[in-house]
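Encoded backbone
================
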Amino acid sequence: MTTEVVRVRERALASAMIEIETVAGRRLRRLRRAPGRMVGIIMNPIIVLVAFGYLLGGSVVAPGNTDYTEYIFAGGLMQVGLAGITPTAVAVALDLRSGLVDRMRSLPISRATVLIGNSLGDLVMGVLGIAVVTLAGLILGWRPHTDPLSVLAGFGVAAVFIYAMVWVGIMLGLLWRNLETIESVGGLIAVLFSFLSTGFISPDKMPALVRPVAEWNPVSAVVTAVRELWGNPQNVSGFAATHSALVCVVSLAAVLLITGVISMRRYRTSQY
């Protein structure tokens, strides 16, 4: 590889990074004009933690008769990602409506950098949501019981899950540009994948019909992996739970791959 080729690639990479930073910055600046979006992402998991962990926690028996707030905290944290699907999809759909996507496609920039920049901007909002929900969890009684590195690794897994859900939102916004449809589908995904999982209820307490669904739900794999890293209580049974790290990696990689490919293809051809 010649020196000139290396320099061209370095300039292309630097240009792509600048484009991604610009698009991500624009996404974050929109948050100042519409702070309600951030409130919605944060309040949903906090309400769940307060309702289930604080108000009803005394009437629910967690695995091993442990603190129920510690059991459900990982599930509540995953709702930051699930609750962010709809706002991300709506933002993409509005960009299509306003003609912004057409203007972006007319510029001499990589189409991939536009979607990646938007996704990273939404990831930053999701990480802020993690920080606020974690503070609420600490106030309500959640505590990790492992070393700092494992605790950080747990939050890293949560951040990767949120990033995967961001791409789900981008895909929905490109596939269904009708806002009512997006809100219905996004809300359904958030409810089903959240409560048909082991995030709030131990699988042995579920009806036999839905137990396999909950055990193989990707959210359950992520929740189980995070609980293990934090040393929080859980009831582990079945292949998906006993091999949570493997299922978590495979499922999140599949979500990112599928949504990324579909989103890139739709972005090239989408017209409002």
Q: What stands out?
A: Residues 38-57+65-269 form one domain. The longest helix spans residues 3-33. Residues 75 and 199 are 4 Å apart (CA to CA). The chain has a mean pLDDT of 83.
